[in-house]
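Sample A.
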Amino acid sequence: MNLIDHFLESQKEKQPNTLISYRLDLIAWENYLSDRHISITNATINNIVEYRHWMTTDKEKPVKPSTVNRSIVVLKQFYDWANRNGHVTSNIASNFKIKRSTVNNTEVKWLTPQESEVLQYSLESLNNPSGIRDRTVIYLMLFAGLRVSEVSNLRIVDIFGSNKKNQSIYVKAGKGDKDRTVPINDKLYGAIKEWITVRSRYKTADSSEYLFVSERASQLTRQGIDALVRYRFKMTNIHGHSSHSLRHTFAKSLANQNIRLQEIAKLCGHSDIRTTMIYVEPSAEELRKAVNML
């Protein structure tokens, strides 16, 4: 058992997905050092400084400041453990400063279970064509994790397996040109079937290959999707969220069920699993609730 495994064994009281994120961060650090012929026990604070700079500027695909900060926090914990257990002579990361992120922390938000329930209840009562369309659009993000652009570009032929028990959607060339197949639950599939039955009521439908159309266009645009989501949020008194919150809710719900990060990343079409790690971190609201329970 190597040093990283020993450290993770000492943290076994933490959630499985948290341990996975720890392992990935530490392996990335170890690989960075190995490429420079430095062992993990011989690293210095200067190496950490250089590592942070590499992650944010020199790396082929720089990572977000919040992800960099999380990696540094893991190094602090790791070297604190290693120092206490005699593997290193000091915690080289103890005095390392975490940079304040310039990223808006409200960018990644998900609905609470209560908000999701209220939204679904409201959508289920809709029975006119535009309401059925809006419900299906929202469910594709909420229950399948599609991006707004992926919903807009979804074609009728991308939904297949109508004679199979487990339905799926083929998502063509999403962000990062990563095609993927996403299984869909019965609620989403039911919404799609209902939308198909009323889709022809739109005069633009006959000439369009796209699943979603509007009164004036043969493809529902990203702006149109954002507008309808904002409207449905407003009608249910849900504030502070955007279309992206629906996709984030999908991923967060999977993480809460202890679904493996690799599986969540595959379902969401993440090219870098580090992007997925945010869903195993508690939100500010979750932290407030935890403190209030004391």
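Sample B.
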Amino acid sequence: MFKRLIILPIAITVLFVAMAACSSDDNDFVPVVSLKVVHSAVDAPALHVDYFGRDTAITYSINPALSFGSNDRFTVAAGENRNILFVNSQDTTSTVLSTTVNLPAGNISTLFLTGRDSNVNTLLLEDQLLQHSDSTAGIRFINLAPDSQNLVFEADQGISPVSLGFEEATGFQEVDATASNGSYNFEIQDASGNVLTTYSTTAPVFRNTTLAIIGLVDDGAGGNSLQVVRVDSF
């Protein structure tokens, strides 16, 4: 009996501590947004994404850098002005660009780095994701080739041709993602109908994806040939 009387107060104390901890966690809860960052700036260096917005907030040696054509997802606080720094991976004292975002809780957006050389800019798109039925997917297109005029995306099935100027994008459109109709071959053409490059992909069932045209129409000897990169939304 004596042991039970001791155990009961201890159990009650532990319960109150747990409740206080939960209350503290609730008060400290910070709503967040998902932000996908895509590096599509021609001739810009690989960049660290400092999404804390402070020069000393990340350890660069363990922070992956985004190279041209790559992308990554970051979670940032919602409902506040959040400064995002893009830092040269070869010289971390050099901030190539900074931008400020303020996104509502639950938002899903994509931030594209655009432009060329030292003229790097950002383009923020809110991802109006489609809710899919069985065996469908969503695809949108964006033209991020800085020396392009209008470029035409043309598919071999199920998608009408789309003509886009630099930094223009479509919304997501629903396409088939079945075993028999889920593979798509694209031609990217100039305004005269000349094929500049091609791309093939399988539509990811129940998912939404962006096909971004990056690089240069006239790359000379720079090795930045026009190409399509696929950016999956989450």
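B remarks: The two ends are 57 Å apart (CA to CA). Residues 1-26 have pLDDT under 50 and may be disordered.
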